[in-house]
Amino acid sequence: MNASGPLDEGVKERADSRRKRLRLLAATRTAVAEQGLAVAAADIAERAEVGIGTLYRRFGSKDALIELVLLDSIGVVSTAAQRALDHEDPVSGLTTLLSVLAEGQVGNRGLRECTTGVGGERSESIREHTRTLRGALEKLVQRAQSSGAIRDDVTWRDVAVLAEAAATSGNYLGIAPEAEQWRRTLAVIMDGLRPPGSAPLPGRPPVDAVTPAG
To answer: pTM for this one?
Structure first.
């Protein structure tokens, strides 16, 4: 007869605790993607099938839990930005980064809110990822312009605004875009950036916000 001793009980407790932690992270990832940064702690706990007290014991606060999930999401994008810089063809690199940005924002409401500054100040870790994205985008646009592949009167900030526009997925004038509309929009944007036959751009380019998103 095998009796469970204190060591066995401790191992089981640690394993159960780990499962709850992973369920909370997975539930938060889904909830934030669907509902955004204002998702309720009770909703996350319910999705994870744990008590709300477990959430606070494991992570301290809902905001701390969401922070972990956001760091993971924006970290994937900033890693893709570094890979985009390795492309020999600057336009391919730029297209890759804009694609990752657009697809990520369309599929993840929380990521979109994070990159557009919804919800106030971000942690230093998230701001660092944001700086990485800004720097990569600036370099990619400059490289593409130096090669003559895109018009030279746009700034990298113009391109950042265009990338956000490609991620628009809501209904407009009674028109419901398909899930892959961002791909079509981005293709039009990239074609519009090419220099042949382009007319001068009106107005002035965008500038940094007082506190950049992130």
So the answer is: 0.80
